[in-house]
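PROTEIN DESIGN WORKSHEET
SECTION A - STRUCTURE
LENGTH: 330
TOKENS:
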């Protein structure tokens, strides 16, 4: 009897000594300091969605989409969450990067100011002062917005500065509006002042253009196809879970980064992001399933207004792939 127990113990000890397969360490670099739009990544990590796919996720804040794209191109980050048109500009110049999923399929670009100023349509911009950041993505598309809405440069004044200067101009009353993202700058203004902001969205005036998505180094994708599929599967599930629990998703940001903002504006910012996930063509699809037409239209707009090299129009599909996304229901 003692021999049997001893043998069983040895067998159990041998079994226990076999290590579980280690999770793959993955670094995701964001486009900027954390704000509400980033909630799904933190929620997916907190809820174990990435771990369930065998991924040990590290989320790093970024310093702009261009800098994050450079980090991914150099393989100092495995994946990036960036403005896809910004990634296109780098890719056409030779950066080995590709979008493995486009999350924001409707543009968040807006002209926004305090709600109590009652600036709610393009006509209301006449006679006002608009704060811009020269050469950023919104300023490049701004002339198209003016063209679509019949406004002229002479209809309003502009003041220029960096991102923080632009915010301060509106907060301090030096400008009536600024060009910003509906879920980002509007929440920063509200955090600083407690006052509501009203955005005039470019997308409401026929500017159909993608925005943020996941990118990876093209060589990394080829060498790690299974990992890329697992990462995109987890990220898709994380977005779907966060959509159902916006406040809990926003709270996961603060749980990971207590100085990451205020729960009310993080939640509101994320809730403003959710409608940007889909277009009329993708409303019944899972997140990230961008259409070829949407990407082609975005490339064409970027060539005409955003400084993208005209050769980009020859093959819009070179910038993105849906091949690593989970199938419906999986």
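SECTION B - SEQUENCE
RESIDUE ASSIGNMENT:
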């Amino acid at each position: 009897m003692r021999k049997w127990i001893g043998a069983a113990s040895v067998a159990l000890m041998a079994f226990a000594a076999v290590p579980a397969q280690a999770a793959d360490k993955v670094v995701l670099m964001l486009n900027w300091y954390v704000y509400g739009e980033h909630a799904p990544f933190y929620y997916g990590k907190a809820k174990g969605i990435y771990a369930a796919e065998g991924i040990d996720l590290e989320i790093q804040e970024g310093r702009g989409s261009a800098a994050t794209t450079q980090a991914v191109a150099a393989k100092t980050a495995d994946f990036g969450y960036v403005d896809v048109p910004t990634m296109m500009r780098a890719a056409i110049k030779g950066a080995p990067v590709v979008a493995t999923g486009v999350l924001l399929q409707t543009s968040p670009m807006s002209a926004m100011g305090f709600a109590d100023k009652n600036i709610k349509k393009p006509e209301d911009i006449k006679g006002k002062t608009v704060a811009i950041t020269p050469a950023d993505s919104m300023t490049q598309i701004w002339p198209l917005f003016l063209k679509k809405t019949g406004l002229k440069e002479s209809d309003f004044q502009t003041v220029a500065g960096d991102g923080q200067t632009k915010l301060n101009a509106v907060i301090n009353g030096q400008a009536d509006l600024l060009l910003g993202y509906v879920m980002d700058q509007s929440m920063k203004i509200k955090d600083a002042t407690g006052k509501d902001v009203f955005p005039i969205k470019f997308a409401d005036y026929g500017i159909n253009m993608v925005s943020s998505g996941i990118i990876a180094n093209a060589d990394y994708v080829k060498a790690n196809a299974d990992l890329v599929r697992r990462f995109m599967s987890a990220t898709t599930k994380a977005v779907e879970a966060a959509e159902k629990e916006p406040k809990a998703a926003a709270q996961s940001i603060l749980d990971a980064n207590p100085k990451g903002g205020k729960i009310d504006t993080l939640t509101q910012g994320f809730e403003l992001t959710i409608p940007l996930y889909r277009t009329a063509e993708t409303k019944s699809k899972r997140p990230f399933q961008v259409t070829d037409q949407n990407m082609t239209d975005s490339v064409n707009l970027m060539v005409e207004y955003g400084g993208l090299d005209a050769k980009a129009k020859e093959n819009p599909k070179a910038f993105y792939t849906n091949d690593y996304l989970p199938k419906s229901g999986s």
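SECTION C - NOTES
The first strand starts at residue 24 and ends at 29.
Residues 1-19 have pLDDT under 50 and may be disordered.
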